[in-house]
Amino acid sequence: MISEGNVEAAVETASTPRHIALVRITHWIVVLSVLGLLVSGTGILVSHPRLYWGETGAVGTPSLIDLPIPFIIGPSVWNRPFHFFFAWVLVLTGLSYVVGSFITQHFRKDLLPAKADLRWNRIVGVVSDHLRSKRREADAASTYNVVQRLTYLAVVFGLFPAILWTGLAMSFGVTSVFPILATALGGHQSARTLHFACVVLLLLFVIVHILMLCLAGFWRSVWTMITGYVPQGERAR
Amino acid sequence: MSKFLKRRKFITAGLATAASASGLGTAVYFADRYGLIPPDHTGIVGVGETLTYATQRLLTSGHSLAREFKRSDISKVPVVNGPHPTDEKYLALLADGFKNWRLSVEGLVARPVSFSLEELSRLPAESHITLHACEQGWSYIAEWTGVRLATVLDLAGARPESRYVVFEPFANPNQSRTVVRALWESVDMADALHPQTLLAYGMNGEALPADHGAPVRLRLARHLGWKNTKYLSRIVITDRRDLYRKGGGTWYGGI
Q1: What is the span of the domain harbouring residue A161?
Q2: Is there a domain that residue A235 lies in?
Q3: For residues A20 and A110, what is the distance between their CA atoms, to the nearest angstrom?
Q4: What's the rounded Cα separation, in Å, for the pair B84 and B78?
Q5: Which CATH number goes with the domain that contains A155?
Q6: A188, B55, B88, B122: which has the fewest Cβ within 10 Å?
């Protein structure tokens, strides 16, 4: 006779979620806060859409990049508090995700690439398969391929920390305690330029990420990231 | 799931909620006691404002110094952000070199005092070459000369219950239409007593130019530009918590 507990255990193993709750919850909070940061960040940027290198820069001094958008004075004032609100949401969520991922071994199990996969021909193989829209068996499986693993690790441990660093390097309070945050980047304006450059990289990632979702089935992927499970009837594919 | 497990989960969740609620309550109590809550702490963005301000106050508690630069780093073109006031009162003061100008220091002080420009310049002066950055994005480096605000507050005898120092400029009808015309500001005592906080009357070795805030502007090396009130006319020390310029922006400028 099978006890209640055994049945539960059996069901659990048969349906291990594609994404654990920690990943699902933090993923969507990060989506919302990044959206808020992009909108409020644009509101700040338009008041001076010129980028410089070094400590100083202003209209009348040489710029590095002149963004082809008009100067709109004003929005930066009321967008800034929203920018910092969403920054805190992102930072605290990111910290919970990183700490939680070490505890649940999400990094080791889902994101750390296997040594055998870290070869150029494997990586090139994954990319060329995707470019030719050839969906491998592994794609429908419940693990990430080597390119996904490397990209997600780079975003989590490279891009987001870089955005945070370049943002903090613009703060006079922060640089009074840690001047190296600004000087190591080349100065206050360099930090601002790099903050922008990092966001462009993040946008590139988001665009490719969404394109890949479309290849795999956009709503199917979104559903899976909300519920943790691939929608019913599709699991056989 | 068994009934026992459900009940255990329920009790755990209840305890966790109670613990976090009392934890939050204790945190708010101590944050307020140690001056970690900014005046603009209300509303949803107030959460971010409070976290930023509290974190920075804990980080910068030892009077951390803003970066200073070499004389050769001084920018050739110091940006002018909005020209000086053009009302009769200001123009008359400007015309005779601010001889009739006086800066009054009042509020929570033992001895309300006022200073002429000459009296201010007889107080111990110092110069700092620091970065001035506008929240819009531009920046320049200049040398500012003046008297420490701490020296002036000491002469007036700021009372121990003082919490904020309010800076009132001349009304400026020339200011950009998107901001309040009289750009008064307030800072906490930590910034008011900071060694790099100056009442600056000199810039790059000369008298402070009219468009940069003559006769005297506030110079806060650890803040963005908008906190550096130009055309000072009055300084008020207060223990009121609700006294800050509600312009939709952030109150704390060390960001």
Answers
A1: 16-52+59-69+77-227
A2: no
A3: 10
A4: 15
A5: 1.20.950.20
A6: B88
pLDDT tens digits, one per residue of A24-81: 999 999 999 999 999 999 999 999 999 999 999 999 999 999 999 999 988 999 999 9
Strand order in the sheet with B164-169: B113-116, B102-107, B232-238, B164-169, B185-188
Q: What is the pTM of this model?
A: 0.90
ipTM above 0.95, yes or no: no
Mutate to test the interface with B, among A176, A180, A185, A188 (most CBs of B within 10 A): A176
Q: Using CA atoms, how far apart are residues A189 and A65, in angstroms rounded to an integer? A: 12
- CA-based end-to-end distance of chain B: 50
Q: Which CATH superfamily is domain B71-238 in?
A: Oxidoreductase, molybdopterin-binding domain (3.90.420.10)
**Run of H or E including A94:** helix A75-104
Structural domain tally of chain A?
Answer: 1
A96 touches B: beta carbon within 8 Å: no
**Which of B58, B52, B55 has the alpha carbon at shortest distance from B252?**
B52
